[in-house]
Design goal:
5 strands, two-stranded antiparallel ribbon, globular, Glycosyltransferase, single chain, about 60% helix, mainly alpha, three-stranded antiparallel beta sheet
């Protein structure tokens, strides 16, 4: 644990050293893009990384960075609203986690304001429900719905409003009915609608499995209905086969752009699944070993020599520019390794 704590400190320090913009108080989008425009949903996950560091160390430097970053984001994005519902969900989740660690209502208030806007993305038709991905489109997908379910659960857990739990169950039911192929466990990305006709998108991404698992974990924690835990375990096993099969148990790269975040998100929620006391011993051991194996590969093979900068491929060293999305995934993996080994 001491070893991984030191590695987490190094990874967080590299995030600050190579990506933090001290004049704007947000993160550069890459190691070579000082002054470039920030990416809203990448910033949300960078904020999440800071929260993980704060929760683990209680170091006030994280609190200061978080406060500065929150104000900078409000300056850049009034009311923190964006045209994509999933982007707002990621930000709301990060802000709510800040509240849970610090107890400061400013962050939960911002998350709840975003939640009001996010709920406007729900439409009963077409498709019998679901939150749209974009405020102007009719693509309804896992990224716009599973994180919304998690957000609704966390709001219920923190504040006890029954309407939030109703929303969580409603959203999850739509995802489970429309975006999960039950015969195989494969999770679709989403459904595009033209008039009333839906076209499923068969794209398969690791973060969709992660957020589905996260939704299951939270619903299980609230309801104690074992079906949610069973669903989470099933999808975790399916995801390991899809994304790490034939690779010695190391997740494949999901790319260096937005995809750079996908594996970190999957690992984050897999670690939280492993914390469930009701989880069977074999599954707990498998998920913990899987996370540790990936973290060891990241540190031993996918780190730039002399630094804690990481590659998107967790089996080889990075070359050239490193994107914020990729670095944040690496930080998330190492922080989650500490969670999983507890």
């Amino acid at each position: 644990m001491k070893l991984w704590g030191a590695r987490a400190d190094s990874a967080q320090a590299a995030l600050q050293r190579y990506f933090w913009d001290p004049s704007v108080h947000t993160f550069y989008s890459s190691t070579e893009s000082a002054g470039a425009d920030s990416n809203y949903w990448w910033q949300a996950h960078a904020l999440d990384a800071l929260v993980m560091g704060l929760a683990r160390t209680k170091d006030s430097s994280y609190s200061r960075s978080i406060a500065l970053m929150n104000q900078a984001l409000l300056n850049q994005y009034p009311d923190l609203r964006r045209p994509y519902y999933d982007d707002m969900e990621w930000m709301a989740l990060a802000l709510l986690r800040v509240y849970e660690v610090t107890g400061k209502r400013i962050y939960s208030n911002e998350a709840r304001l975003l939640w009001r806007t996010i709920k406007l993305g729900w439409s009963d038709e077409p498709g019998g429900g679901g939150i749209r991905w974009n405020i102007r489109g009719l693509y309804k997908n896992v990224p716009a719905n599973a994180p919304a379910c998690i957000l609704a659960c966390k709001l219920y857990e923190d504040f006890g409003e029954k309407s939030d739990l109703h929303w969580a169950k409603r959203i999850f039911s739509w995802v489970e009915k429309n975006l999960v192929i039950h015969s195989t466990g494969v999770i679709l990305d989403g459904i595009s609608f033209r008039n009333e006709v839906g076209r499923p998108s068969h794209g398969s991404y690791s973060y969709n499995y992660g957020t589905f698992i996260g939704a299951c974990v939270h619903l299980f924690g609230i309801t104690r209905e074992k079906i949610y835990l069973d669903d989470a375990v099933r999808e975790a096993n399916v995801a390991e086969k899809i994304f790490a099969g034939g690779r010695n148990g190391i997740l494949r790269s999901e790319g260096t752009g937005d995809g750079g975040l996908f594996n970190g998100i999957f690992i984050y929620y897999l670690a939280r699944l492993g914390l469930q006391p009701e989880l069977d011993v074999a599954s707990r051991k498998e998920f913990s070993s899987f996370i540790l194996r990936n973290a060891e590969s990241l540190w031993d093979h996918a780190r730039r020599p002399g630094t804690a900068l990481f590659n998107d491929n967790w089996r080889s060293q990075p070359i050239g520019r490193i994107n914020l999305s990729v670095q944040v995934s690496g930080v998330t993996l190492i922080e989650s390794c500490l969670v999983a080994q507890n």
